[in-house]
Amino acid sequence: MPEAASRAEVNVLDNFIGGRWVPAHATEVFDVHNPAVGDVIGRTPLSSAVDVDAAVRAATVAFPAWRDTPVNTRAQVLYKFKALLERHFEDMARIVTTEHGKTLDEARGSVRRAIECVEVACGAPSLMQGTGLEDISAGIDCHVVRQPLGVVAAIAPFNFPAMVPMWFLPFAIVTGNTFVLKPSEQVPLTQRKMVEFLQQCDLPPGVVNLVNGGRDVVEAICDHPGIRAVSFVGSTAVAKQVYQRATHAGKRVQALGGAKNFIVVMPDADLERSVGLIAESFYGCAGERCLAGSILVPVGEVHHEARDRMVRAAKALSVGDGAQPGVTMGPVISAKHRDRVIRYIEQGVSEGARLLVDGRKTKVPDRPNGYFVGPSVFDEVSPSMAIGHEEIFGPVASICPVKTIEEAIALMQAHPNANATSIFTSSGKAAREFAKHATASMVGVNIGVAAPMAYFPFGGARDSFFGDLKAHGRDGIEFYTDKKVTISRWF
Ligand code: NAD
Questions:
Q1: What is the phi/psi pair of residue 341, to 5°?
Q2: Which atom of ligand 1 is least distant from the CA of 213?
Q3: Ligand 1 pocket check for 451: Cβ under 6 Å
Q4: Could you tell me if the CB of 467 is within 6 A of ligand 1?
Q5: Mutation test of ligand 1: which of 32, 211, 238 has the most ligand atoms closer than 8 Å to its C-beta?
Q6: Residues labelled catalytic
Q7: Which of the listed residues 51, 166, 184 should we mutate to test ligand 1's pocket, taking the one with most ligand atoms within 8 A of CB?
Q8: 233 CA to centre of ligand 1 in angstroms
Q9: In tens digits, what is the pLDDT along the chain, a chain of 491 residues?
Q10: Nearest CA, atom 17, ligand 1
């Protein structure tokens, strides 16, 4: 598509229902932009409950044959899907960069993570196995099998268009469920491409359906009596609503919410080797990661050195169009989000934090219409300030110095979000104490972004996660299956 395409030339996307691309019943559309350029590159229909119902009907029709399909045959679909994703790896990364803005290297990393989820789900013939025991009483045996739930749905956020849907889709379908996916209206193009690939994988119609849209689609998914389980990833406020609404309607729900992640630096940390990892945690993907560092907590005498190194690392970043070589930080997702990040920076200044690097001034001359905000560093931040307790979801580092590790842990414990956290130290004892008392569920020791691989559970605690079973790994298999116990005696 030419960069200068006008809005009218850009087609409204279709939904994928029952194996066919069909127009949505939508009266409104949402413009998708290339955030580095500002151009409209797609138009997302804001589908209605009618579209959700059509998708659920198609998935319901497809379910009996799909659940009866041998698990190994279901896994073969995923092997083919993986092969296509590998073959088109570079194209996928480019689509992610074009609609989301992250750098090509970051996009490649996210597509790799997506593929890893598909690979892990291919292990379903082993992972889905149940248990059994003979002679639980004389001549009586007991065995447990895992069965699919039926029609399940997933709702995705904007920040990882390739990876987050793959936390759910491969696990859901390989276990025999049929699936309805709702991408973020801000980034629908990567997921459309993925579904086009799935179409080439001998997937029966109706097993995977895609409904584009926003709030109306989410609410229809929560309420639809034909949907048995809902996976959600997004902000805490919406995660909470989805959890309440969908559980009220009797569904199994896993709702992953927002984050405010604390990165603690001890005086004995190897700063030379750590600062790159720490800066990457705050500024990677322009801070639009649920695992991104948000509050830097230097303990004791390391404060000034950690601060000065962060300032240097922030200033060394090259902000620009993520599709161009040499760029190390792309734009944020939209003009609206850029303005929101800038408002937080303004608020930080007015609440008395010391602004050492000011991202508001960043300009990218060859991309005058992109949604850029440069990296910022604040020192002397307190938890009572907006930048000290609200999720900014942008490239802003807030330094909250403390005197002891106990104070650092207490800061984290006082925050309602508990997604990820890291400590940088050369002390095993400090690391152990920290990991033990961390409220967050994903903990890094000398790791900037504590992202569990696809064979481990992914998800936070408190206001960062609502539900029981987390995303992917064994939790993914458990979430999408029910355990059936059969006790038998043969006369
Ligand atoms: P969001 O909550 O605005 O949107 C998420 C999804 O919900 C989208 O599909 C959107 O269309 C829909 N939605 C938005 N508002 C809604 C409403 N009022 N009612 C019903 N549905 C609604 O989140 P986002 O801005 O797309 O993504 C960023 C957020 O996601 C951040 O808070 C980030 O921390 C979080 N996130 C969390 C994780 C995690 O693993 N915990 C992972 C990625 C992103």
A1: -60, -40
A2: 11
A3: no
A4: no
A5: 238
A6: 290
A7: 184
A8: 6
A9: 334 456 668 999 999 999 999 999 999 999 999 999 999 999 999 999 999 999 999 999 999 999 999 999 999 999 999 999 999 999 999 999 999 999 999 999 999 999 999 999 999 999 999 999 999 999 999 999 999 999 999 999 999 999 999 999 999 999 999 999 999 999 999 999 999 999 999 999 999 999 999 999 999 999 999 999 999 999 999 999 999 999 999 999 999 999 999 999 999 999 999 999 999 999 999 999 999 999 999 999 999 999 999 999 999 999 999 999 999 999 999 999 999 999 999 999 999 999 999 999 899 999 999 999 999 999 999 999 999 999 999 999 999 999 999 999 999 999 999 999 999 999 999 999 999 999 999 999 999 999 999 999 999 999 999 999 999 999 999 999 999 999 999 99
A10: 215
Instruction: Judge if the beta carbon of residue 235 lies within 6 A of ligand 1.
Output: yes
Q: What angle do CA 27, 31, 37 make, to 5 degrees?
A: 170
Tokens read off for 102:
């992250």
